[in-house]
Structure to design on (486 residues):
């Protein structure tokens, strides 16, 4: 697959578009490196680090929550609650995850149309989530005994509200990232995580059968209510007030074309995230599956570090397309500094790390953890390239790469598990991500070699003047892009 230059731009055919001189690029813009003290002032790294902190909070407090659940609830009640939470998250992700990438891409360049864009996104998400949830509830007997407690119109209505609330929380993170306020994401997640742990203990004696699920859902309000107020009353008005009055908002066709590719890619990603563990559980013993679940959780948490930095890269490069190369170089350098030591520790100390979870974990799971650690930095390269593609609205390529990754992981896991056990899944991930990274490498290298414009060159960001269309500027100069700009 080939990639066109990220500096391709589409402008309206006016004779003299306004240009603003730019200062001499800083050392970090030319080389992709910068002093550590400047990272806190750079939105790309400030927001990326905030999302990494959010991942650490989610992982750490998530383990605390499930430990408390094991202490205060029976295995049956805990299993029922976790099954309902998994269903809620899956149903909401079928729609919400398709919008988070679009929010990160288009909110930064929506200008005075930011409020209208968000109202439409939330409205469509509510409608789609409601339809999917009603279908799930109508077929409730098919999903097994874990979901029997959702029967009855009152509990079904409560579950529908839970799905919508989780969708709202998921979209809220995307909105905060798009508004360059990702520092609030870990704040909201901390409120949610602490609140659900407290409610879990409080509800254990009152409603033990549903306390796990209710504590999770009720705590969503601790994040959605205050941060929703912040978005509506402070962040959106701030962006609208600072917007260039001549900035053209993204068109429905541009958003629709972006969603068509990005949502397809999200579905492939969901298959890898949710179906591969189901496949493993069906093929191995319960003991091996327990080992796999823990190791997969560790690997998934580290993968999120790359996903989060890529989201910040999409936002900042959507606002300033001319800085895509510099932003990518900077993001890659910092991700290497953060993740390479983590992957090295996991590979070298896999056995001692797994021994913490109990006897037998190291012998059964160390090879799997080593394979996943070896594949870790490949995932960093892939996700960063996905971030550059989304910034240029080239989501069809994202969908193709994610489809390839999905097909390779599933097929190789089926092939290797009978021979290697759960370690075969780790090798399947390594081979699959290596193949996809190899396909993505030429395009990533072209982006990394891209340089910011010289002094006096027209600025390609949102402040560039009335005739520049930032959305089109991030797409290849195709007939479709030209048609959208006219």
């Amino acid at each position: 697959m080939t990639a066109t230059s990220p500096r391709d731009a589409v402008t309206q055919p006016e004779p003299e578009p306004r240009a603003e001189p730019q200062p001499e690029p800083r050392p970090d813009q030319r080389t992709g490196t910068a002093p550590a003290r400047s990272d806190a002032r750079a939105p790309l790294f400030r927001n990326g680090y905030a999302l990494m902190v959010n991942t650490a909070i989610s992982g750490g407090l998530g383990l605390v929550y499930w430990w408390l659940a094991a202490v205060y609830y029976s295995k049956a009640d805990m299993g029922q609650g976790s099954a309902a939470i998994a269903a809620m998250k899956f149903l909401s992700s079928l729609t919400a995850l398709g919008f988070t990438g679009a929010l990160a891409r288009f909110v930064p360049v929506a200008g005075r149309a930011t409020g209208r864009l968000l109202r439409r996104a939330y409205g469509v998400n509510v409608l789609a989530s409601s339809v999917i949830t009603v279908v799930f509830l109508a077929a409730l007997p098919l999903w097994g005994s874990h979901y029997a407690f959702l029967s009855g119109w009152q509990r079904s209505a409560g579950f529908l509200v839970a799905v919508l609330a989780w969708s709202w929380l998921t979209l809220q993170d995307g909105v905060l990232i798009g508004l360059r306020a990702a520092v609030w994401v870990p704040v909201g997640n901390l409120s949610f995580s602490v609140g659900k742990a407290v409610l879990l203990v409080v509800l254990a004696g009152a409603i033990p059968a549903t306390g796990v699920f209710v504590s999770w859902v009720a705590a969503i309000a601790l994040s959605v209510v205050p941060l929703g107020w912040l978005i509506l009353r402070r962040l959106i008005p701030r962006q609208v007030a600072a917007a260039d009055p001549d900035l053209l908002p993204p068109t429905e066709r541009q958003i629709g074309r972006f969603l068509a590719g990005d949502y397809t890619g999200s579905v492939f990603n969901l298959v890898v995230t949710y179906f591969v563990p189901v496949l493993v559980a069906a093929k191995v013993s319960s003991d091996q599956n327990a080992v796999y679940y823990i190791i997969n959780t560790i690997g998934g948490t580290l993968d999120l570090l790359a996903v989060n930095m890529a989201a910040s890269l999409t936002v900042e490069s959507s606002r300033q397309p001319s800085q895509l190369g510099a932003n990518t170089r900077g993001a890659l350098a910092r991700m290497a500094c953060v993740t390479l030591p983590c992957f090295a520790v996991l590979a070298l100390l896999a056995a001692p790390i797994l021994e913490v979870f109990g006897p037998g974990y190291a012998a059964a799971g160390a090879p799997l953890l080593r394979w996943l650690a070896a594949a870790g930095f490949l995932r960093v390269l892939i996700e960063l390239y996905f971030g550059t593609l989304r910034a240029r609205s080239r989501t069809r390529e994202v969908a193709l790469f994610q489809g390839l990754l999905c097909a390779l992981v599933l097929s190789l896991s089926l092939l290797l598990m009978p021979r290697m056990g759960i370690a075969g899944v780790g090798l399947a991930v390594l081979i699959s991500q290596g193949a996809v990274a190899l396909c993505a490498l030429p395009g990533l290298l072209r982006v990394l070699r891209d340089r910011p414009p010289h002094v006096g060159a027209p600025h390609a960001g949102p402040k560039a003047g009335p005739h520049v269309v930032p959305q089109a500027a991030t797409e290849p100069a195709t007939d479709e892009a030209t048609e959208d700009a006219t």
Notes: Residues 279 and 414 are 8 Å apart (CA to CA).
